[in-house]
Design a protein that fits this description.
- The complex is a heterotetramer, with 2 copies of chain A and 2 copies of chain B.
- Chain A is α/β, with parallel strands linked by helices.
- Chain A is 30% helix and 27% strand.
- Chain A contains 7 helices and 11 strands.
- In chain A, helix 3 crosses helix 4, helix 3 packs parallel to helix 5 and helix 4 crosses helix 5.
- By secondary structure, chain B is an alpha+beta fold.
- Chain B contains 10 helices and 4 strands.
- The longest helix of chain B is centred in the middle third of the chain and has 42 residues.
- The chains are: A alpha/beta, B alpha+beta.
- Chains B and C meet through helix 2, helix 5, strand 4, helix 7 and helix 9 of B and helix 2, helix 5, strand 4, helix 7 and helix 9 of C.
- The complex binds adenosine-5'-triphosphate (2 copies) and magnesium ion (2 copies).
Chain lengths: 237, 298, 298, 237
């Protein structure tokens, strides 16, 4: 699904956000990018999403090389992805329904079908009662769930979630992780960026530990006590 | 086709959603176009009025006193054969005298003492429209003067040249002012739209993030821009029309004005279309160029 | 005072920070004011030109043939005592005849045959400025006509009334158009500023959240609005001035125009101040009214 | 410092965000408002901050009754408060320095003094190197720390922090909590809204448990095993 080969990203020459990242994520995997604040987690997800371009190195997503294809195919690629942004990126003055429906609207899906699917996914994240509210008046956790709903409503082949439970309490976090697991079971590849150790324990998953823009190691956790598998900087899998 | 319906729908939805912003935009477009069309209307009316003045140009041919009535009708025939001539009318010596007396009542007594009628007979020529230019009249006058029996030809040389100059001056001044207003209108409309897009750049960014193509994002904005231009033009022309109505009524009722002196007319249909087109096209292009900026985001 | 310095500083900082938005705003203000001032200038020039025409109004007093030179100088004295009279000049019978001959060369031959000079002597009166109204001239003419030895008085009744009507028409049309342009300018400027504030409402909200008083938030915006108006007026008047220079040079060089016919002048200083004031005041008021909306947030 | 008496807040008649909240927070206390997503934590803080008005009930902050005083004194009150907003509320296009300095600028403090204090506080949150960056390009955790810096730079008598560590990793969370403890030791009253149980264990503090807009109980935690003190709905202290 995702191959990164010796990828570097420097926003400014002084502070490289990512250096020499090589990573291979298979279709259907459930991967955590784990690291402290400023480690480069968001940057990594943005590179996969095509929202940022690597300063060096190759990124291949779904068989497409980001360095090669035409700009105009990016939207088509994105329609197969879902992204939960760390800052949500919701339209603050549109209703929750419109926000979630937008991801389907751009594909040209029919109104009735949009309605059906949006209602379903809002039920999953526990926001059925908030359908006609605007995000502006929602609580932080509610906004985050709208962002999650939008990311999964188009049943993406790849779900990228940036700190998707940062504003959710323990109970809701559990619910959302369960939801992600279900989606994963249906075949969606999932990559979650987080700084929260607790998240890692939800199920046996691959964890890519990031620090100062470098891969510190790759673990598999969840099976009672994390055991390290591959090594730093490593070609994983 | 279904796609198109969606876009139209979306555009209207946006107009409604950003109601206040759109109201202001339409208001600004409207007023810019109002200024433009008011200028147009005043200019066209003035030009028509000045053209009417030009229609009053006529060439007077003074005939020598020695001509017999037969000579005169021969001269008439000769002049009539010129393509420049639209209408020809004879003023006999007697008519000239009585006209003179009417025009200068102060001198009537003096003229009554005369034994001979000192005034010559003359032919008044009205010219075809295409021969009313100052140069063309000059040439025509010279030709007529060569006809035997014609003593002199007059056509208000100084006036006709002054008029031509004035018209030229007016036209170039109006052209300059018109171009300024037109450019100002286009600049204001397109930049107003640019300002409104500042407030909506989040929307564009987010649409790109969920996989909308540039085309998909653009089209509703284009339609919105066109609609803004259309609405702006509509309101501008409505206001202009009602002001026109009020104004002509006021002229009609006013005791100061003889209606025939100033009968103003409204903009002709193709000018209305032109102004509407200016609104719509700048609305479209305003959206087009402003969007470019934001569509670069990824 | 230190406070004031801070505000000024802040305003300039904002102008720099929101450079593109401010550039567009200043551009729109500039063009609105350019249209307004172009209109003003054209109107003032036209009015001056028409006033010059009015200065050519004169009253001709035709004297009876029986007057002796003593009679005539008595009449002259009498007329000179009227407050309406600015200048009085005598045209003798001989002068009248030669003038007539010059004016109508076609009839010269006819007039040479005359034994008596049929034309009367006349007095041309130039009127004081305040007595040039159509009604006032009429009254004056009637008074003059009653003087013994005066045969007739002429002053181009129809022309003077037509002119007065035209002037009235022009003034009210210009007033209407001017008001439309002025209102449009004010509307456009204040709403442009409103649109720019849409893009900056976050800033206002956040300032309130960290404990800024409304006064503290407002003042830099006011100063910014005033500066935008000032800059807009400055650019508008610069463009107007250079266009004026170009245009008058073009007229001066053009072989078509006699300079005395159309000598256009630039806007007088107090009009420049007025236009600058319109820019600054609408800039200020635009900021004032738009800010109100956002300052309600808590 | 803060008294709330039978406070209700209904954004819409159907869903009361807060009902019958009575609360007393003394000067110098360190209080957690703890509850799940949508419990009303943010609403409670906003009421104390004067950013929302109660539908019913009395709120007295620093001896001032919010129902009574003139609108124009609100800014003066806010200058003695710091607020870490859940969504940060930073000026995205101004530098970090300007953002933090703003809280001092509005009080009319001199430029040199602003500089001194901003530099100091940015060092405390570990952002010295980011001083001239704009928040737009900062990572989520960095933005949150800018928000914290702005809230404490004016040495407020009352610090309100809404989920202040939601975007911070374990290490940074510990740092920030230490910083809050220091500020608290200097006399600042601190009220933190959070859904994160882990936060509660940092030191012996009062915890107000909120659920569905109601106070479920008040605990004191941190002294090995939380012991409940006052009761539900209760007049605390
Ligand atoms: N657009 C940008 N321009 C410049 N620097 C950037 C930009 N985006 C991120 N950075 C910097 O790159 C580094 C990594 O940022 P990133 O957002 O990837 O961190 P993160 O791991 O997501 O952190 P957090 O957990 O705080 O969100 C940070 O130091 C950040 O300041
Ligand atoms: N301005 C508003 N208008 C209408 N409803 C609102 C408004 N603000 C909050 N709400 C609603 O009130 C409830 C409580 O919101 P609040 O933001 O206080 O929750 P919270 O405890 O902070 O939750 P979170 O942990 O998710 O941030 C939510 O259901 C929210 O949708
Ligand atoms: Mg991040
Ligand atoms: Mg909250």
């Amino acid at each position: 699904m995702i191959q990164m080969l010796h990828v570097y990203k420097n926003y400014s020459p002084k502070y490289p956000a990512l250096s020499d990242i090589s990573l291979n994520i298979e279709k259907g995997e459930f991967v955590f990018i784990f690291g402290p604040s400023g480690a480069g987690k968001t940057t990594l997800l943005k590179l996969i999403f095509g929202a940022e371009h690597p300063s060096k190195g190759q990124i291949i997503v779904n068989g497409m090389n980001f360095g090669r294809f035409k700009k105009s195919t990016l939207p088509l690629l994105r329609r197969k992805m879902g992204f939960v942004f760390q800052d949500f990126k919701l339209l603050n003055h549109r209703t929750v329904f419109d926000n979630v429906g937008l991801a389907l609207e751009v594909v040209g899906i029919k109104k009735t079908e949009i309605k059906r699917r949006v209602l379903k996914v809002l039920k999953h994240v526990g926001l059925s009662s908030r359908i006609n509210t605007v995000p502006l008046v929602l609580s932080g956790g509610e906004q985050q769930r709208v962002a999650i709903a939008r990311a999964i409503v188009n049943e993406p082949a790849l779900l990228l979630a940036d700190e998707p439970t940062g504003n959710l309490d323990a109970e809701l976090t559990k619910e959302i992780m369960k939801l992600f697991k279900i989606i994963n079971a249906w075949g969606t590849t999932i990559v979650i960026a987080t700084h929260d150790k607790n998240l890692l324990n939800f199920n046996p998953t691959k964890v890519v530990a990031l620090e100062h823009g470098k891969i510190k190691g790759v673990f598999v956790t969840g099976r009672k006590g994390a055991e390290e598998t591959a090594t730093r900087n490593g070609s994983i899998n | 086709m279904k796609r198109f319906y969606y876009f139209i729908n979306k555009a209207f939805q946006n107009l409604r959603h950003f109601f206040l912003i759109n109201l202001i935009t339409v208001g600004i477009i409207s007023l810019s176009l109002l200024v433009l069309s008011t200028f147009f209307m005043v200019f066209l009316n003035l030009q028509t009025y000045l053209n009417k003045l030009r229609d009053q140009i006529q060439v007077s041919v003074y005939l020598a006193d020695g001509n017999t009535p037969e000579d005169i009708s021969l001269i008439q025939k000769k002049i009539n054969s010129f393509p420049q001539v639209k209408k020809l009318s004879l003023i006999t010596k007697e008519e000239a005298l009585s006209f003179f007396k009417d025009s200068f009542p102060g001198q009537r007594k003096a003229l009554e003492n005369l034994k001979d009628n000192p005034l010559p007979a003359s032919l008044d020529i009205q010219l075809q429209d295409e021969y009313r230019g100052s140069e063309k009249v000059k040439i025509f006058a010279r030709q007529i003067k060569n006809i035997p029996g014609v003593e002199d030809v007059e056509y208000g040389q100084t006036w006709i040249e002054g008029y031509a100059n004035f018209l030229k001056f007016m036209r170039s001044a109006a052209l300059a002012v018109g171009v300024v207003i037109l450019l100002a209108t286009i600049f204001i409309i397109s930049n107003t739209i640019k300002l409104t897009l500042f407030a909506r750049k989040d929307e564009i960014e987010i649409m790109k993030l969920v996989g909308a193509t540039n085309f998909f994002i653009r089209v509703p904005f284009f339609i919105e821009g066109i609609l803004q231009g259309l609405l702006g033009a509509f309101f501008a022309l409505m206001v202009l029309f009602f002001s026109y109505q009020l104004f002509s009524n006021w002229i009609g009722q006013s005791s100061y004005f003889s209606l025939k002196f100033f009968k103003i007319f409204f903009l002709p249909f193709h000018h209305l279309l032109l102004i509407t087109a200016v609104g719509m096209i700048t609305g479209l292009l305003g959206s087009f160029f402003s969007l470019g900026r934001y569509l670069k985001y990824e």
